[in-house]
Amino acid sequence: MNEAFFITALCGALFGGTPEAVHDFTYPGGAASIRIDCENDRRVVEFGLDKRSSLDSIQQALFAAEVTGKEAVVVLIDTDGRMGRFEWRIARAANIAGVPIRILSATLVDSPEVGG
């Protein structure tokens, strides 16, 4: 299962949010947009697996919070049942930055069917 699966399965169920929300922003060189993994009325949530590719989760959550004016949250999906080096780094950075982080076991969603 990949990150997109968990976003689809958990965004609405856990956060009452909308997955893959797009927001435009401007910067000194022009304009661009970001895609937020999950967004509700108060929060922007960045999901990531316990892999190296999730090391940018804090930056993505903080930037989405800046663009939307909402609270940043990071959710890591633990795929191997242990606190590995990437979870540790991301959790430490989240704590330093004051970003709430939740680490959820991938076994919470053990079926490709949402709610399975």
Kindly summarize this structure in a few lines.
By secondary structure, the protein is of the alpha/beta class.
Secondary-structure blueprint:
Layout: H1 3-15, E1 18-27, E2 30-39, E3 43-49, H2 57-68, E4 71-78, H3 85-97, E5 101-105
Parallel strand pairs: 3-4, 4-5
Antiparallel strand pairs: 1-2, 2-3
Task: Looking at this protein, list some descriptive labels.
116 residues, alpha/beta, 34% strand
Order of helices and strands: HEEEHEHE
What's the number of helices?
Answer: 3
Strand order of the largest sheet: 1-2-3-4-5
Largest sheet: 5 strands, mixed
Instruction: Give the beta-strand count.
Output: 5
**Rg (CA only):** 14 Å
Explain what the structure shows.
The protein has 116 residues and is an alpha/beta fold. It has 3 helices and 5 strands. It has helices at residues 3-15, 57-68, 85-97, and strands at residues 18-27, 30-39, 43-49, 71-78, 101-105. A 5-stranded mixed β-sheet has the order 1-2-3-4-5. The longest helix is centred in the first third of the chain and has 13 residues, at 3-15. The chain is globular and about 40 Å long. It starts with a helix and ends in an 11-residue tail after the last strand.
